[in-house]
Design goal:
alpha+beta; four-stranded antiparallel sheet; Alpha-Beta Plaits
């Protein structure tokens, strides 16, 4: 079985990581999960304090589009964490690729940064 994997790379405003991490856990992650998104990993780049990543897996491009439309079109997102999260970011880039399920599970070992 293959999964469509999206790697979202963030360039953060200087020093924004602690706030982004808080907003992710308190606002974004519950909404991502409610939209049925498979959050594979989230964290800060080990070589750059102002870079972060979010890795999500989907069934295919249609699934990705449907789930993103559901989340990003919702009042909960628009009236919730959207603006504060965007204030932490300079830019972001998405890379999408297809990987086998075992590779996705291996990436899952990176985990979701819980603080520290």
């Amino acid at each position: 079985m293959t999964r469509l994997v999206e790697i979202r790379s963030y360039r953060l405003r200087s020093g924004a990581w602690p706030e982004l991490r808080r907003l992710f856990h308190e606002g974004a992650l519950p909404l991502l999960e409610a939209a049925g998104m498979d959050v594979v990993a989230f964290g800060r780049s080990p070589d750059d304090p102002d870079a972060a990543f979010l890795i999500r897996a989907f069934d295919d491009l249609t699934d990705r589009s449907r789930r993103e439309d559901e989340l990003y079109g919702s009042a909960a997102w628009r009236n919730g964490p959207r603006e504060p999260i965007l204030a932490c970011l300079d830019t972001w880039t998405d890379t999408v690729l297809t990987l086998d399920a075992a590779t996705v599970d291996g990436i899952r070992l990176v985990g979701i940064d819980r603080g520290g």
